[in-house]
């Protein structure tokens, strides 16, 4: 996505998190996982959410994809405020409008790549044309792997199948939780490059949760969570390479006291 022309209007915010807090209650004990989080994600952008273990990344991701509800505040995805949906409507909304990619791929072992990709449509009682699935497979570099089951695919191929599955419903936004966490670094970088291309060439909107600077460096925007607050937001392009981004990230998470931004 080209953000270079200052005179252009900003693209519409596809996802907005407003003043969101999340408290987990365990008996008399409370864990405040997120406090007063605000963020917007523009259509066609690639956003990385970084943070140490326990900083609240998964909680934020689960709130944005409607897997859990906030204690306070609002989450809006593609113009729909999730709190207005019943549990059943939210399930349908998630199935139709949100793509999910996981660290462990989560493919069905007994199904071919083709049927894994089609799975979200089957679940909705729908199907796709051969042309659509072949085009998607071609874009993701797995055209010749469609008849294979997951156990005869490499890790990188399995993640490509999982990404194709996340896109088959033409979702408004794709959330990827540590998508390279189970891959070697070269394969992980090829997955990052693919996600970047999906944004650039198809205006897909992608949010990646990662603790890897080498993944975050592919994003447009990086948000850093610490103790449930967003403490830093910056454009990845301002850091050039993963090492420079890693140094900045370490500085941010290592700083003793930071105000939420
Ligand atoms: N279901 C839950 N019940 C109680 N506490 C929870 C629950 N889920 C998360 N937490 C707590 O909320 C805080 C944030 O957790 P979260 O999983 O969002 O962090 P994270 O940044 O994704 O961590 P990681 O990188 O280890 O997955 C942590 O203190 C965690 O222990």
UniProtKB/TrEMBL annotation:
InterPro entries: AAA+_ATPase, ABC_transporter-like_ATP-bd, ABC_transporter-like_CS, ABC_transpr_LolD-like, MacB-like_ATP-bd, P-loop_NTPase. Residues 15-252 form the ABC transporter domain. GO terms for molecular function: ATP binding; ATP hydrolysis activity; transmembrane transporter activity. The keyword Heme does not apply. It comes from the Bacteria. Keywords: ATP-binding, Nucleotide-binding, Transport. GO terms for cellular component: membrane protein complex; plasma membrane. Gene3D superfamilies: P-loop containing nucleotide triphosphate hydrolases (3.40.50.300). Transmembrane segments: none annotated. Belongs to the ABC transporter superfamily. Macrolide exporter (TC 3.A.1.122) family. This is Putative ABC transporter ATP-binding protein. It comes from Roseimaritima ulvae. The lineage of its organism: Bacteria, Pseudomonadati, Planctomycetota, Planctomycetia, Pirellulales.
């Amino acid at each position: 996505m080209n953000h270079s022309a200052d005179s252009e209007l900003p693209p519409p915010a596809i996802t907005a998190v407003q003043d969101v807090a999340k408290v987990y209650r365990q008996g008399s004990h409370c864990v405040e996982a997120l406090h007063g989080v605000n963020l917007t994600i523009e259509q066609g952008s690639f956003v990385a959410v970084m943070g140490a273990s326990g900083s609240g990344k998964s909680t934020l991701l689960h709130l944005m994809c409607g897997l859990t509800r906030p204690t306070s505040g609002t989450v809006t995805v593609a113009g729909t405020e999730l709190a207005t949906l019943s549990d059943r409507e939210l399930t349908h909304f998630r199935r139709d409008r949100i793509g999910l990619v996981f660290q462990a791929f989560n493919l069905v072992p007994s199904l071919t790549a083709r049927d894994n990709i089609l799975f979200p449509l089957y679940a909705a009682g729908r199907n796709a044309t051969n042309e659509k699935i072949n085009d998607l497979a071609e874009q993701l570099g797995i055209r010749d792997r469609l008849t294979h089951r997951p156990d005869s695919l490499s890790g990188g191929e399995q993640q490509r199948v999982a990404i194709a599955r996340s896109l088959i419903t033409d979702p408004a936004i794709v959330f990827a939780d540590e998508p390279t966490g189970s891959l070697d670094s070269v394969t992980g970088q090829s997955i990052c490059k693919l996600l970047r291309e999906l944004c650039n060439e198809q205006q897909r909107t992608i949010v990646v949760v990662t603790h890897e600077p080498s993944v975050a460096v592919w994003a447009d925007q990086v948000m850093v969570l610490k103790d449930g607050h967003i403490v830093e937001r910056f454009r990845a392009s301002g850091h050039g390479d993963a090492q420079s981004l890693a140094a900045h990230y370490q500085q941010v998470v290592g700083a003793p006291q930071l105000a939420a931004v």
